[in-house]
C-alpha cells in the first residue's frame, strides 16, 4: 500500500503539534493505576511507552517476535526503535509490503506457539488483511473446537485523525472489527494505558487488535510506571466522576471529552462523568450501565462515522438496560457519514464544541 | 557538488572509458548484490522482450509410466512390503470412504461432501514422505493425508455429522477436518488463507534449536490465484522458512479450467520467480510424489522453501453441490480414469512384487466397506452436543455479554421448546 507517503507526514505531525494545531489538548492521567503507585515512573510519550511494552514483552518471552513493514530500522513512527539491536534480526524483522501476508504469517506463528506482534503501518491499510483477521484469526479457535488457536497474535496498527491525513491516514476502523466475535479490540488514551494494555494484549490468549492513536505518539507525554505491568482488557475506566451526564469515549477522543466536560462545568455548571471505554470488544457494559443509572443521561463520542459506529451498539444496549433511568435520548457525537476529509477535517471532527453542545442539549432536554 | 562538476569535466578519451567500465562494474555489483538476490546479471545491447509463450515448460518428474512400470530403476524408492501395503490400503480406503459418503449425501443423510477421486496418490505419496511432527495445513481435498496419519473412520464420520463426538464440536460443514494430535490444522473454507499461516508456523519452527519440523501446505490450482498465495510465496522466500508448498493442479477450480486460471507455466512456473526451489511432479505417480516430497523436506529443513506442483486430474465433481457434466465431457473424465488412474498404477507395483493379489483385494474391499458402514451408522445415531456449546471457544473464556445472550436463549427455549430440535441434543453438561 501507499503508506510510505506518510513517513514524511509522520514527522510533520509533530511539527503541526508544535504549531499548536491539534484539535485537543492531551490530558495526562490523574494518578497511577492501582498497585503501581510506588514502582517509580519515567516521563514518556506514547511512542516510547509502546516501545517499552514491546521490549518488556520480548525480554520476558523468548518466543516473541515483532514484524511488519519497516519495523527493522525502528518503524516509520519509531515504535520499534533499537529493538532489532537488542533482540536480533530473527526476532525483529521487516516483511514484504503486504498486509494480508503480515496477518496470515502472524496467525501461523501464533498457531505454532510463538508470540506474534504484527505491525500494520496504518489502520487505513489493514483491509487487505481483513479476511485473515475476520475469517481466520477470529475463528481459529472456534472452528477447530478449541484444538488450535492463534491467541498469541497481537496486531498493532495506527489509528485516528492527525490534522492532515485525509481519507487514507486518518480512519478509525474499530467498528469494522467489532462485528466479528473472536477478536479483542483495544484503544489506549495515553502512554500509561498504552504500555499496560499492549502488554495485556500480547499476553492475552485471544487475538487482539491494538489501535494506537498516532497523533499521541509524540504529543502525549506523562509519567509512566517503570517495569512490567498489565492493565485489564475488557474494563472501562471512569476518569472523571460526575452526576449529571455520562460521556463515553476512547483513544484521542477521551481528551476531547475531558475538555468538553470542563467547559460544561465552567459554563453550565454541569457535572459530566467521563468514561474511557479502553476495550471496544468485549466491552464493559456493566460499567456504563452503573454510570447511566446514576446520571440518567448518556453521550457517546467517536471520530469514526456515526452510522454503524460502535456508539450505536452502546446506545442500543444502554437504552435497553437503563430505559427507566434515562432522562434524555442517548446522543452520539461522531464523524459524519463521509469518507474522512482532507482540508475540511476541522468541520468533520466531533470537536469540543460539538460535544459541549450535545451536553447542553442533553441536560436541557 | 564541486566533485561532481570535476568528474563531469573529465569528458575525454581514456579517463572516460575507465570511468564507464568502473561505473558499469559498480552498477552490476549493486544490482546483483542488492536488487537481484546475488544473481549474476549483465547488460545487453540487444532489445529483446522475453516471449512468455516460448519459455520451456518445467518438465514433469515421474518414476513410473502410465501403466505403472518403473522407468529408471535408480528412481525406485524401494518401499518394503509393509510400507507399500499401507500406502495402497490408505488409497483404497479413501476411495471406498468417498464412495459411501458421497452416496450418503445423495440420500440426504449428510449435508455435504467432497471426494478425492483421482488424487489418492498425491495425498499418500506426500504424507508418507513427511514426519509425523511436520505441521500440515490443508485446503479441503486432502482426506488421504489425514487417513495416512491415523485419523479414524469414526473421527471422519463424527465430523461429517457434527455430532457430540466430533473433536471439532460440530462447528463446521462436513470435510473440514482437523486434529491437533495429528498435527493437521483444522480446515477453513476460505481458500489460500492457509498459505501465509503455514509460512508463519514454519518461521516459528525455524527459531527452535535443532529444528526437525517443517510446515507443509496443500492448495489447488485455483487457490494459487488468490493474493494470499503471492503473499505466502514472497514471505517464505524472503524470510527463508522451512516449508513445502504442495499444489494439487487437478485441472479445475470448480468449473474453471486451468487455461482460464493462469497465463504462465502453471504453478511451478511461478516458483523460481519468487525464489522458491521448485519441482513439477506426475501427481498420479505415488513413487514420484514420494521421492519429490522426501527431497523437498531435506531442502526445507535447510530453510530453503520448496514449491511442488503435482499434475493430476479431479475425477469426481468439485463437491456434492456440483455437477461437472455441465462444463466437461463424460468422455474426458472417462479417458483420465482409464488411461491414468493412480490406484491402478500403484497396484501394479505391489502386485509385481508379489505382495498383493485379487483375493487380497476382494477381502480388503469387503472389510473396509463393512468398517465404513458400521462407523457411519454409529455416527448417524449419536446426538448433537447441547446448544450451549455454540457459545464456547469464541474466546478462551465466555465473556459476560455472551453469557447474557446464552441466558436469554435458555429462557426463550424453555418457553418455545417445541420449535427447536431439542430432542436431537444431549443434556447440558454440568
From TrEMBL, chain A:
The keyword Mitochondrion is assigned to this record: yes
Mitochondrion keyword on record: yes
Subcellular localization: Mitochondrion matrix
Domain of life: Eukaryota
GO biological process, one term: response to nutrient
Keywords: Mitochondrion, Oxidoreductase, Transit peptide
The reaction(s) this protein catalyses: N(6)-[(R)-lipoyl]-L-lysyl-[protein] + 3-methyl-2-oxobutanoate + H(+) = N(6)-[(R)-S(8)-2-methylpropanoyldihydrolipoyl]-L-lysyl-[protein] + CO2
Main subcellular location: mitochondrion
Matches recorded under SMART domains: Transket_pyr (SM00861)
Domain Transketolase-like pyrimidine-binding intervals: 44-219
CDD domains registered for this protein in UniProt: TPP_PYR_E1-PDHc-beta_like
Entry GO terms, CC: mitochondrial matrix
Cofactor(s) of this protein: thiamine diphosphate
InterPro entries: THDP-binding, Transketo_C/PFOR_II, Transketolase-like_Pyr-bd, Transketolase_C
One Pfam family, short name: Transket_pyr
Single GO term (MF): branched-chain 2-oxo acid dehydrogenase activity
Entry EC no(s): 1.2.4.4
Self-association and partners: Heterotetramer of 2 alpha/BCKDHA and 2 beta chains/BCKDHB that forms the branched-chain alpha-keto acid decarboxylase (E1) component of the BCKD complex. The branched-chain alpha-ketoacid dehydrogenase is a large complex composed of three major building blocks E1, E2 and E3. It is organized around E2, a 24-meric cubic core composed of DBT, to which are associated 6 to 12 copies of E1, and approximately 6 copies of the dehydrogenase E3, a DLD dimer.
UniProt function note: Together with BCKDHA forms the heterotetrameric E1 subunit of the mitochondrial branched-chain alpha-ketoacid dehydrogenase (BCKD) complex. The BCKD complex catalyzes the multi-step oxidative decarboxylation of alpha-ketoacids derived from the branched-chain amino-acids valine, leucine and isoleucine producing CO2 and acyl-CoA which is subsequently utilized to produce energy. The E1 subunit catalyzes the first step with the decarboxylation of the alpha-ketoacid forming an enzyme-product intermediate.
Protein name: 2-oxoisovalerate dehydrogenase subunit beta, mitochondrial
TrEMBL record, chain B:
Gene3D superfamilies: 3.40.50.970
Its EC number(s): 1.2.4.4
Catalytic activity line of the entry: N(6)-[(R)-lipoyl]-L-lysyl-[protein] + 3-methyl-2-oxobutanoate + H(+) = N(6)-[(R)-S(8)-2-methylpropanoyldihydrolipoyl]-L-lysyl-[protein] + CO2
Keyword Oxidoreductase (UniProt): yes
GO terms (BP aspect): branched-chain amino acid catabolic process
Molecular-function GO term, any one: branched-chain 2-oxo acid dehydrogenase activity
UniProt family annotation: Belongs to the BCKDHA family.
Protein name as catalogued: 2-oxoisovalerate dehydrogenase subunit alpha
